[in-house]
């Protein structure tokens, strides 16, 4: 689920392109190439939390249109228990510039009895954000459209990488951070809400973490809807150790199972 940005031929054009995209970037201090995160997925079934699958996320340095870029992928897979109720096979792919400006996004999703693909290509002409959007519907039809915005626009993956680099020491509890997110169809009116700090213990283990808590909220049909609540480590890594997902068909959770290749010491981990 990713898209492309054209490499400029002349040095002058290349520098201009870099300066235009930089306004949508942020300094990355949270992760490095070679980071891998692994999660267990749970679903609330008749008031009992049942393990229904797994997820893995990787970030590596790669090339995109001839320039260095972070390649991030997220794969979620439901098991047979979930398949009886709702099939979930999602694969997300993203390329971001080294300053985390989004370049390309792709989501291939089998959710229930339907399969679709979303793609976004980003470019930044004259300091604006230009999106080329492509949707492959469940019936195989293709829909293309283009959108232009004066402000920066993100997708489900690039917003995640960006949020990991926020300086929470400058945030106040209850503060809202605008986060416009687009898919291949429309732009959502969405934001992150900072909920403060909590200590979280991963169930079934002795793992405890000091966490920063954020909610991803979207406004639709005149109402605010909390879609995901993140618990991220209160250290320089800002790794999500727990995600609460409020879905149309119920509630799901993801808990960090293991990690490797992290950039900074895990000082939030409590013994």
UniProtKB/TrEMBL annotation:
Pfam families: DUF3108. Keywords: Signal. Residues 1-22 form the signal peptide. The keyword Signal applies. It comes from the Bacteria. InterPro entries: DUF3108. This is DUF3108 domain-containing protein. It comes from Xylanibacter muris.
């Amino acid at each position: 689920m990713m898209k492309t940005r054209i490499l400029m031929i002349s040095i002058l054009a290349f520098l201009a392109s870099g300066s235009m995209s930089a306004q949508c970037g942020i300094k990355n201090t949270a992760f490095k190439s070679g980071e891998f995160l692994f999660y267990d997925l749970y679903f609330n079934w008749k008031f009992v939390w049942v393990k229904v699958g797994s997820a893995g996320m990787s970030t590596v340095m790669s090339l995109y249109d001839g320039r260095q870029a972070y390649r991030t992928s997220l794969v979620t897979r439901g098991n047979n228990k979930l398949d009886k109720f709702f099939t979930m096979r999602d694969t997300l792919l993203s390329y971001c510039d080294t300053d985390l400006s989004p370049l390309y996004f792709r989501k291939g999703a089998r959710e229930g009895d339907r399969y679709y693909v979303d793609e976004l290509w980003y470019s930044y002409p004259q300091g604006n954000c230009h999106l080329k959007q492509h949707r492959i519907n469940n019936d195989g039809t293709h829909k293309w459209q283009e959108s232009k915005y004066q402000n920066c626009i993100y997708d489900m993956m690039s917003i995640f990488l960006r949020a990991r680099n926020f300086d929470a020491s400058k945030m106040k509890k209850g503060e809202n951070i605008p986060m416009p997110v687009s898919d291949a169809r429309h732009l959502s009116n969405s934001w992150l809400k900072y909920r403060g700090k909590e200590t979280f213990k991963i169930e079934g283990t002795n793992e405890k973490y000091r966490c920063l808590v954020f909610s991803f909220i979207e406004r639709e049909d005149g109402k605010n809807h909390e879609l995901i609540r993140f618990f991220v480590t209160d250290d320089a890594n800002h790794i999500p150790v727990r995600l609460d997902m409020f879905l149309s068909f119920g509630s799901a959770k993801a808990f960090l199972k293991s990690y490797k290749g992290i950039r900074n010491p895990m000082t939030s981990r409590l013994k």
